Structure formats: C-alpha cells, structure tokens
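Sample entry (253 residues):
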Amino acid sequence: MALQRITAQSADRICALLIGPAGIGKTSQIRCLLGQDFQGGQWVQSGFQPEKVLVLSAESGLLCVRDLVASGQVEGFEVRSLADFQEALRYCQSPNFYQAGYQWVFIDSLTEIASRVAEDLQRKFPSSSDTLKMWGEYSQQMTDLVKAFRDLPRVNVVFTCLITTDKDKATGRIFPAPDISGAKLKGRLTSYFDEVFVMDRITLNMGNPEAPMMQEVLVFNTRNPVGLAKDRSGKLAETEYPSLLAIRNKILS
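Predicted structure, serialized as tokens:
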C-alpha cells in the first residue's frame, strides 16, 4: 500500500471529547453545529452556517433536540450494542458516508455506549473465571473503535461523556475523570484526543467593579481540571463560549 502524504485537508478537522455532568447541555451542542445559539433563554439562529451532522446516539429519545429530529435536520442511528457501534463505524468508513456530505460525526454518549458494550461482553463471558478475559476484550474493542472514529478523514468527530470522580488508592486524592466502564480505558481515554473540553457553569461579573452584576454562565474549560481538560491547538482561552462550531473555526483559523 502506497504511503499517503499529509495534506492541509487531512489537518482541517478536529476531534474532541466533551465531558460534563448530566443535563448541562452536551447533547444540545448538536444545535450549535446546526447553526443555532442559546440567547435570552432560547435557541435562535446564530451567525454560523449550519453544517451537516451524523448523530450516533445511545441516549433514548434525544429529547433536547426533539424538534430537530422531527424536522429531519438531525440524521443518524441509534447505537444499542457493540454490533451497532461496529456497523456505524463501517458506514462512516464507506463511500456512501462521504457522498452524503457529512461534516461532523457526533457520538452521544460514550458513557452509555461503553456500558452497552460491557453488557454484551458479559453475556459472552458469563463465567466469573472469565472476568479478566472479558475486561481485556472490552478494553481492546472500545479502544479500537474510539481510535477508528477519531481517525476518520475529512470529518470532525465529537464524543460526549459524563464526568465522575475517582480516588487514588495510594494517596487518597479525589480527582475528576470520564465516567466510563473499565479502569484501563478510563485512565487512557483523554490521551486519545487533542481536544478535551469540560462543560461547567461559572459565576462571572457581567457589570463593573463599582456595580457588580454576578451571573452564572456556561463555558467550556480547556485547561482545568488539570489532567482532564486540554487544548493542543494552543489557540483557545482557558474558558471558551460553549459552541463546538465556534471553537472549530477558532482552532482552524
């Protein structure tokens, strides 16, 4: 097989892991990719052109984007098993996928998909004597799939994931981590991505020192918590406005 040269097109994309607590708005980022922005308590059209998104969802109903599903603006597949995840990957690697003109693959959520993959493998290895074998296969399958989606050419890829806390058994230190089955995969997951954003709400002074007006705002953290959030592009501020489309444009500008 001939070597493939690095081109500007091969670097003209992002792959990101979006981590945050339940209900903070990770799935609603689909709206941002479709050219919407949250202003004044409602979603409105932004200044960005909508981009075409393929959604792979393990979350029942996609309630927060139900209107977009009903109108046909959200396209994609439900992922309920390891076989579904593998089939979705084959589609994303096929000519049909690229001919459809998708610009984003949005995988929601890695927490739920990993749980279903683990359930499938527990049925394959029902004996307690096969526990190590089961988790070894789980780690390998999930790692291979995450990397394969990450490396899809000419398309932006986003994984969402819940956040949890873990405890270092040696030191007792409590630290934030991706909420995903399997200690090995959990420890390595963020290393597979150049961009890891942690969604959070912070309080800012929207007024001035003389007349402070404190307001809670939603942001993407790109550097904190240390060891979880990161930005390898070097173009993002410590906190960014929560729009994947705006962030992609800023990184590639």
